[in-house]
Amino acid sequence: MYNFVMKNLFVIFILLLGIGGCFALDNKELSEKAKLEYVQNNIDNAFDTLISIPEDERTSLNWLLMGNILQDKGKLDEAIFMYKKAEQADEKDYKPPYNLGRIYLEQNKPNMAIKEFTKSLALKKDNPYTHYNLGCAYIKLGEYKKARKELLDAIALKNTVPEFHYNLAFVYKKLNKEKNAKIYLEFYNKLEGNM
């Protein structure tokens, strides 16, 4: 009788451990769950899942996703905080400084945007959108030659984005290079289907 009771208690104990293990996710599983929720546009659930991960165990991607969610909700100061935490978590990730640059550009802080985009490009030189946004920051400062270089780099990496051509046409116009401005405006119109 004693052995029968002990065996049953042991089986119940193992089952409880198994059941408990099914409900308690580790931080890696929570990160994966949050990524899936984010991709499926369940951003509130994704954010709640990310917040449940202890701060000292969050990855750069965890912080980045929280920043993206907050930025989408218009909470830019909180998003900036999250992106800075993402940078601290992984200094080799080009995305946090890129996203910071986008916010600073949106806030009409081109010098701060340039600093962040330059950091991002030091980590990943072949991102056409970083070159494009860096070019836009230079446009805001009236530094058209620097803007031209970045926009040309963006187009060299990806020549199918209409805005790249449109902004380059604008820059050439500002540089009094009407012929070049016309060429890139024509590219823009072709890509937009206006021709």
Task: Please outline what is shown here.
The protein is an all-alpha fold and 195 residues long. The chain contains eleven helices and no strands.
Topology:
Blueprint: H1 2-23, H2 27-39, H3 43-51, H4 60-72, H5 76-89, H6 95-106, H7 110-123, H8 128-141, H9 144-157, H10 162-174, H11 178-192
Description:
It is a single chain. By secondary structure, the protein is mostly helical. It has a domain at about 20-95: Tetratricopeptide repeat domain (Serine Threonine Protein Phosphatase 5, Tetratricopeptide repeat, Alpha Horseshoe), CATH 1.25.40.10. The chain has helices spanning about 1-25, 25-40, 45-50, 60-70, 75-90, 95-105, 110-125, 130-140, 145-155, 160-175, 180-190. α2 (about 25-40) runs antiparallel to α3. The model is unreliable at about 1-25 (pLDDT under 50).
Tell me the Rg in angstroms: 25 Å
Order of helices and strands: HHHHHHHHHHH
Strand content: under 5%
Task: Give me the count of strands.
Answer: 0
Given helix and strand content, the structural type is mainly alpha
- Main pleated-sheet profile: none
Between the first and last Cα atoms, what is the distance in angstroms?
90 Å
Give the CATH level 1 class of the domain at 21-93: Mainly Alpha
Helix content: over 70%
CATH level 4 superfamily of the domain at 21-93: Tetratricopeptide repeat domain
SS element count, helices: 11
Q: What is the CATH architecture annotation of the domain at 21-93?
A: Alpha Horseshoe
Average pLDDT confidence is 90
Shape: elongated
CATH topology of the domain at 21-93: Serine Threonine Protein Phosphatase 5, Tetratricopeptide repeat
Ranges where pLDDT stays below 50 over 5 or more residues in a row are 2-23
